[in-house]
């Protein structure tokens, strides 16, 4: 990359880049949460009630979406625990970081004219889809970690999703057949739960509420839910696995990658940002380190070319800690697997021992 190409993100830390994001670029709702989003990363995994969790609760409350968690909260209350948000501090910080990283990449894609305004001509509609996609993408971990099946009424409420059949078949595969993974898939559970509960909120809302509940918003629910449903599906690697996938109606996952689509980038961006975002990766090493989330973001640098006449989208992401070697980094991120299911090229940048170059 020559110097002219590096405009916004010239070898800056993610912390610095996130801090530079303007309010109108991440605030869909104009009130009810923090003024300075970077303060949400000041906590560690071990704190009791993180700023990132508080921020997400307030963001979701401002949008009238807290009801999405009702099925989970009702289950948890049965065992005598009262949760306002049944997601760990790490998952909250990770989800918020995914949200901001996607905005960063979007700005470069927009400058290169490789993307529309997220959704049609309206930036806010796209921001709405992106916040739903990111802040809710891991809610299905409650089901995966506790091996709890989705209620059939939730599954039946998702038949209008374009990837409903794929999601249901994969859900049944993970639950009944797969032996290498946890029995329940958090991606399918999260996408189905989000779509069903958002539609319940839509149909039961109070007409006096100031929030928008026109029919077009249901199209945005669908886009977000479909991205979440798809984001954790494993592709088959062997001929035996491929034959098994065919028998179970999972043909769409065979020799197929999630490709970048400038008209609907949400599934691709979720998968990319969810994979590369460092807070989730750092948590795996926190037995040895107890970094704050902010410290992790400060130790990861990103360099992106936003020169409009350079049509390729590529960026280098440099990790300082907690990875000890390029092998640790590759294994944690799953670089070999990433290229099998996502339409990107990944290479080791020789300028830095712990640096990856991502192109699409």
Please explain how this structure is put together.
- There is one protein chain.
- This protein is an alpha+beta fold and 360 residues long.
- It has one domain (3-359).
- Helix content is 48%, strand content 6%.
- The chain has 17 helices and 5 strands.
- A 5-stranded antiparallel beta sheet has the order 1-2-3-5-4.
- It is globular, with a radius of gyration of 20 Å.
- The relative contact order is 0.14.
Features:
360 residues, alpha+beta, five-stranded antiparallel beta sheet, 17 helices, 6% strand, disordered N terminus
Topology:
Layout: E1 12-13, H1 14-20, H2 23-26, H3 51-62, H4 70-77, H5 89-111, H6 123-135, H7 141-146, H8 152-156, H9 164-176, H10 186-203, H11 216-230, H12 239-247, H13 266-276, H14 278-283, H15 293-298, E2 300-304, E3 314-319, H16 326-333, H17 335-341, E4 345-348, E5 355-359
Antiparallel strand pairs: 1-2, 2-3, 3-5, 4-5
Distance between the termini: 15 Å
Tally of helical runs: 17
What are the low-pLDDT stretches, counting only 5+ consecutive residues below 50? Answer: 1-8
What's the rounded overall pLDDT mean? 80
Care to count the β-strands? 5
Name the beta content range: 5-15%
* Radius of gyration, taken over Cα atoms and rounded to an integer in Å: 20 Å
Task: Tell me the count of domains.
Answer: 1
- Biggest sheet features: 5 strands, antiparallel
Q: Report strand order across the widest sheet.
A: 1-2-3-5-4
Structural class label? alpha+beta
What level of helicity do the residues show? 40-55%
Secondary-structure element string = EHHHHHHHHHHHHHHHEEHHEE
Shape: globular
């Amino acid at each position: 990359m020559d110097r002219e190409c590096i405009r916004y993100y010239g070898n800056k830390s993610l912390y610095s880049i996130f801090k530079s994001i303007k309010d109108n670029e991440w605030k869909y709702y104009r009130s009810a949460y923090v003024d300075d989003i970077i303060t949400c990363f000041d906590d560690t995994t071990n704190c009791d009630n993180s700023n990132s969790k508080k921020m997400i609760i307030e963001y979701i409350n401002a949008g009238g979406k807290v009801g999405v968690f009702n099925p989970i909260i009702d289950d948890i209350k049965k065992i005598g625990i009262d949760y306002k948000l049944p997601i760990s501090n790490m998952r909250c910080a990770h989800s918020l970081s995914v949200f901001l990283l996607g905005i960063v990449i979007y700005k470069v894609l927009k400058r290169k004219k490789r993307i529309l305004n997220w959704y049609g001509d309206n930036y806010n509609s796209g921001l709405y889809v992106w916040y739903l996609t990111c802040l809710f993408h891991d809610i299905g971990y409650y089901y995966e970690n506790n091996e709890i099946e989705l209620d059939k009424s939730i599954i039946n409420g998702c038949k209008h999703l374009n990837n409903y059949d794929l999601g249901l078949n994969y859900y049944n595969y993970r639950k009944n057949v797969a032996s290498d993974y946890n029995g329940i898939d958090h991606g399918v559970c999260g996408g189905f739960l989000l779509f069903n509960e958002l539609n319940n909120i839509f149909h039961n809302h109070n007409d006096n509420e100031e929030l928008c509940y026109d029919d077009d918003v249901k199209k945005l629910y669908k886009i977000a839910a479909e991205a979440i449903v798809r984001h954790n599906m494993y592709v088959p690697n062997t001929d035996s696995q491929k034959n098994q996938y065919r028998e179970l109606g999972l043909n769409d996952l065979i020799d197929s990658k999630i490709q970048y689509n400038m008209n609907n980038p949400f599934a691709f961006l979720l998968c990319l940002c969810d994979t590369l975002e460092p807070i989730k990766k750092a948590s795996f090493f926190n037995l040895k380190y107890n970094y704050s989330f902010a410290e992790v973001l400060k130790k990861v640098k990103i360099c992106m070319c936003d020169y409009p006449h350079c049509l390729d989208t590529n960026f280098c992401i440099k990790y300082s800690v907690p990875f000890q070697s390029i092998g640790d980094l590759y294994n944690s991120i799953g670089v070999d697997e990433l290229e099998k299911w996502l339409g990107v090229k990944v290479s080791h940048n020789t300028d830095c021992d712990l640096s990856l170059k991502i192109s699409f």
